[in-house]
Amino acid sequence: MKITSQEFRKAFIDFYVSKGHALIPSASLIPENDPTVLFTTAGMHPLVPYLQGEPHPLGKRLCSVQKCVRTGDIDEVGDKSHCTFFEMLGNWSLGDYGKKEAIAFSYEFLTKVLKLDQNKLAFTVFEGDENAPRDDEAIAYWQSHGIRRDQIFTLPRKNNWWGPAGLTGPCGTDTEMFIVGDQDKCCEECDPSCDCGKYLEIWNEVFMQYDKQTDGTFIPLKQKNVDGGMGFERTLAILNGYDSVYDTDLFRPAIELIESLANVKYGDNEETDKAIRIVADHIRTATFIMGDQKGVLPSNVDQGYVVRRLIRRATRYARTLGFEGEKLVELATLYIEEYKEIYPELLENKEKVETELLKEIEKFQKTLVQGLNELEKVLKFVKDGVLNGKTAFRLYDTFGFPIEMTIELAKEKGFSVDMEGYKAAEEKHKAQSKAGAEQKFAGGLADHQVETTNLHTAAHLMLAALRKLFGDDTNQRGSNITAERLRFDFNCDHKMTDEELKFVEDYVNEAIDSKVDVVMEEMPIEKAREIGATGIFNNKYGDVVKVYTIGDYSKEICGGPHAKNTGDLGHFEIIKEQSSASGVRRIKAVLKG
Ligand code: SER
Fold first, then answer.
1. Fewer Cβ atoms within 10 Å of its own Cβ: the N or the C terminal residue of the chain?
2. Pocket probe mutation, ligand 1, options 39, 44, 63, 68, max atoms within 8 Å of Cβ
3. In the prediction, which pLDDT does 443 show?
4. Which residues of the chain fall short of a pLDDT of 70?
5. Helix or strand (DSSP H, E) at 542
6. What's residue 166's pLDDT?
7. How far is CA 272 from CA 78, 136, 329, in A?
8. Which atom of ligand 1 is nearest to the CA of 90?
9. Rounded distance from Cα 136 to ligand 1 centre (Å)
């Protein structure tokens, strides 16, 4: 069938809205309340608190088109299927309908809306193990719609158990849906877990019935949820009969622009095609991260480092295609045009995206050629096939080559990189620049870092006060700190009274007057939970977290940085308390002298 990206998004949303689901806007790509993961990786990610039982303001049936970024496979990008940015079409029942309706909805959408031949579909369900029985219900529900038993496969946990997203939290068995593609590709005894290309996965409905505990056991969730997710790009390609997401209308205009910039033809040569796909993917992702509602610019840390890597890698590939990196700004502009209706934040941030992208490219272009020459030169002297770590670090420090790029370049020439040596050189450099920064600080040359750091520490104290006041299910819903003030959103069902505001101010000022040290410890997430640190525990991707303890006043998981002692903070004052969203209040506060 032929279906455009616009039509497909609309068909999905219209369908679920017609079934009583409220459309929720895409959350930011930068996760709220989750310092251990850099990006939103699935449609359900922003919904974890609601999957755990907190009521959602828009009800129990939701659907969305969510922006997602997964960077785990960044080096695979260049082939026909990998993307670092993708959209996920999602549908949820928060303790509302169950398996039967979820399957009925999926069946109806696939066969009536998308008009797929039901004989060309295949399904998988959980085969059962010591934690949960075989999902005979799901088999029966599919069969009730006329699906033959031989179209339904039972597979182990590896295939038909989803989540939790991190170490603990909502998870359960799932049923996955496939389009049966090219029969010729099939290896005889194949099932949908085989990647021969016969079965093309399009959709996953997870039946979230369990809450995985820190000790590895599964207890029933407070409410049973359905969490459906469909990879947009991939399914769009499959529906249109393309064997690559890069053939869809989401990428065609971008590829045509690259063709004209580079004066090459997509499809002519595998090497060129790979470079085109890398450029198309990376600039799309960088545009979305920089143009996000919580946009992040290129830097050397966290999300900023990912943006930097994407832009620099795209710049290098633009060069192999024979055009200057600066031209990539045109590509960002094209993506903003393409997506501006669905993600209006891109248009709002257009100027920032274009300016900052250009800046980053220009910075890198200046050193790119020199760096490449340097690498060429040093590789000539490498005897054992391993580029030493010190040189790799110099390429980063002097020429701005992200280490991953050096590894990639070295690999292309048959070399590897001594990563231990690289890390040692990096540590040494960090220690030296830390000493430098401290000196600068002592000399009174510090920038606004001190103000924002102090406000950040005050925000921790404030959250602790709010939890004392309103209970432990009070959580941060957002935060924004400038050198002048802090802005902090949290769940609360009423306008705060003057007494309540005074309680918060007094609590924070008492902590400040007590001049207590702010102590940071790194520990496994389980330990952080045990010692009662605040933070969202059920959606963790990393296993070691930083816990900041402020005397008996606050204990919170956080990436930092923080003031060394509360005595450095000054006087805390709330200047405004207002509504931010339904069930969410916002406080603005300052620290005075
Ligand atoms: N959470 C599931 C997934 O990411 C379904 O939405 O596939």
1. C
2. 44
3. 32
4. 33-36, 165-167, 183-188, 434-449, 536-543
5. none
6. 63
7. 10, 49, 20
8. 6
9. 21
